[in-house]
Every structure is written in structure tokens, then in C-alpha cells.
């Protein structure tokens, strides 16, 4: 209990906990003594501002998925997501839109393509809205995502910025090979967290022609003890080094068409079109189409990246898809 003595008929009470309920009452004191307490009033302090999980936010030309943590011990009533468009000069537009009464710690927001937005979140309870969270910038020029580190094989390392994967040639101790149900165990691979919107998505992968790799898409529940492309829940482009040549396969359920690529691509474009039912691969440097899978994706798929030999590859996203990617 906190007691504050004042001579005025008003008082400011400080250092209260956020998102907490307090009972307030007043007594009057003179030389005779202390009066009975007034009727008690209940007051709820506003919540702490949420904490946006920037490494778990994804976007595409049509929408953005924003995820955050509450930052409050007690549950809040709802959240409000605020967004404003950023001008070409980098300043914030005076008009702010709000998505109100969001019940959970994530929100899928419909946006316009080719824009830049400033987005923040407030927590709301009966006492009112919190201060707004730290502001993040979201671009809708292309698809943007991070890698899901909890799916990565133990032999993989991910760069600090979250876009390059490394597979070293040193052996890991058995103690470092502890696995869980979500981790790839055979294929040295990792999934990417693409936004769940059934539109068009495009990203690029920079590779070394001296590294064996697999890139493509997979369902979230793809078998972690299987190789990418070896099952019916993943589709991938595979690069194999043979004594005589570079071999490329386009694998799904263990089958690949017989084709030959004469120029080794070092930057590969991946175009996923849910409505068209296609997954296409391109040599970006040559604007060259390599192969297209035709398939009806019943569920959302995730970008997947694997290394079959020591080396590295880098993911480039938030890129505007070239005109030839979705013809």
C-alpha cells in the first residue's frame, strides 16, 4: 500500500506498474484526527508498449505480417496496429491508419505494392492504449522474409543479418548434434519464413558454382529426415558436381526431368505463383528461364535452402520481380 500526504485536493501518483489494477481512496486529516476513508475507486494503468519481433515480420507486395510480444505480465484486452506511408523524401505521412481490436500478438495487414510503410503497435486495456512500440519500416517492393533458425540442421551456420547460410567442413561433436522435431536431420537445410499470402512471391539466391546446393520450396511439415526434393512435400533445384560437368536437377518426389544447363547460374531467381500453380527458376544474370514446376499447392509452402557440400549461399529478398518471372 502506498500513502501520499498532500495539502491540495488533487494528487499525482507516480511509479505505478503498467497494466495493473489499483484501488484508490482518500482520507482527510486535521488536528482532531483522520476521517473515515472515502469510497474506493478502481483504476487500471495502461499497458507497456509491445515489442515488435522484427526477425519474425514478413511482407510481400500485397501485405505484411507483423508479430510482437506483449511486454506485460498480465493479459491485455487487445492491440492496435498503426501504419502510415513513408514519403519519397523519407518523411512520415500525416495520415495514420489503424487496425484495431487485434486479439493476438500478430496481424496480417493488406497493403499497396511498391510502397514503404512505418508500422507500430499499441497494447490496449480498460485504462486506455499504451505508448506505441518502436517503429519498423516495411517495404512492399517484393517478398521479404528471414530464415527460420529453429529448422536449421546443426551443421549450418546463419550470418548475423540472417540471410547467408554456411556449411563448414569441420565435424561437429555429438553433443552439438542435439536435434528436435523441427530440425532437419539428414539434409543440411533450413526453411525461410515467407508470408502466408496466396499471391506471387519472388526471391533470389546467390550461389558458388563450386558448392552443391538445393533451393526451392517445401511444406512446413516436410519430413525433416528426408532430402529436399526426395519426397512429395518439397520441390527443388539441385546442383551436383561430377568429375566431368556441373549437373542440375529439378526434383520433386525423387524424380527430375532430363535436361542440361550450359551456363552455370550464380544468381538464381525463384518465382512462386500460387494462383498460376507454378514454381519457376531463372538465371538472373542472363534473364534465362531454367525450369518450371506445375503444381497445385494445397497448403502454404516455405522457401527451403540446403547445402550438400561445404560452402555458402546468400538469400536476396525484398526484390521487385522481373517482368519475365510471371509470364
From TrEMBL:
It comes from Mastacembelus armatus (zig-zag eel). CDD domains: FN3. Residues 1-45, 46-143 form the Fibronectin type-III domain. The keyword RNA-binding does not apply. SMART domains: SPRY. It comes from the Eukaryota. This is Fibronectin type III and SPRY domain containing 2. Pfam families: fn3, SPRY. Residues 125-323 form the B30.2/SPRY domain. InterPro entries: B30.2/SPRY, B30.2/SPRY_sf, Butyrophylin_SPRY, ConA-like_dom_sf, E3_ligase_FN3/SPRY, FN3_dom, FN3_sf, Ig-like_fold. The keyword Transferase does not apply. Keywords: Coiled coil.
Amino acid at each position: 500500500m502506498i500513502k501520499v500526504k498532500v495539502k491540495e485536493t488533487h494528487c499525482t501518483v507516480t511509479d505505478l506498474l503498467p497494466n495493473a489494477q489499483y484501488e484508490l481512496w482518500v482520507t482527510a486529516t486535521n488536528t482532531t484526527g483522520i476521517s473515515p476513508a472515502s469510497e474506493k475507486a478502481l483504476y487500471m494503468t495502461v499497458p507497456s508498449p509491445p515489442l515488435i519481433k522484427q526477425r519474425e515480420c514478413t511482407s510481400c507486395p500485397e501485405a505484411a505480417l507483423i508479430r510482437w510480444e506483449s511486454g506485460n505480465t498480465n493479459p491485455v484486452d487487445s492491440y492496435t496496429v498503426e501504419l502510415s506511408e513513408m514519403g519519397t523524401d523519407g518523411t512520415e505521412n500525416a495520415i495514420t491508419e489503424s487496425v484495431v481490436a487485434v486479439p493476438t500478438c500478430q496481424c496480417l495487414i493488406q497493403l499497396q505494392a511498391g510502397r514503404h510503410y512505418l508500422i507500430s503497435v499499441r497494447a490496449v486495456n480498460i485504462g486506455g492504449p499504451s505508448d506505441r512500440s518502436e517503429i519498423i519500416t516495411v517495404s512492399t517492393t517484393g517478398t521479404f522474409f528471414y530464415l527460420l533458425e529453429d529448422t536449421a540442421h546443426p551443421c549450418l551456420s546463419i550470418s548475423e543479418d540472417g540471410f547467408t547460410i554456411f556449411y563448414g567442413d569441420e565435424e561437429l561433436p555429438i553433443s552439438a548434434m542435439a536435434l528436435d522435431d523441427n530440425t532437419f536431420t539428414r539434409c543440411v537445410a533450413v526453411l525461410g519464413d515467407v508470408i502466408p499470402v496466396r499471391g506471387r512471391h519472388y526471391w533470389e539466391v546467390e550461389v558458388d558454382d563450386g558448392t552443391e546446393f538445393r533451393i526451392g520450396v517445401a511444406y512446413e511439415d516436410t519430413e525433416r529426415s528426408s532430402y529436399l526434393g526426395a519426397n512429395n512435400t518439397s520441390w527443388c533445384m539441385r546442383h551436383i558436381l561430377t568429375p566431368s560437368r556441373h549437373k542440375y536437377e529439378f526434383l520433386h518426389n525423387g524424380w527430375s526431368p532430363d535436361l542440361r544447363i550450359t551456363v552455370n547460374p550464380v544468381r538464381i531467381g525463384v518465382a512462386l505463383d500460387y494462383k498460376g500453380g507454378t514454381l519457376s527458376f531463372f538465371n538472373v544474370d542472363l534473364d534465362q528461364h531454367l525450369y518450371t514446376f506445375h503444381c497445385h499447392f494445397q497448403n502454404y509452402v516455405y522457401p527451403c535452402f540446403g547445402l550438400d557440400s561445404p560452402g555458402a549461399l546468400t538469400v536476396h529478398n525484398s526484390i521487385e520481380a522481373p517482368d519475365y518471372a510471371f509470364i
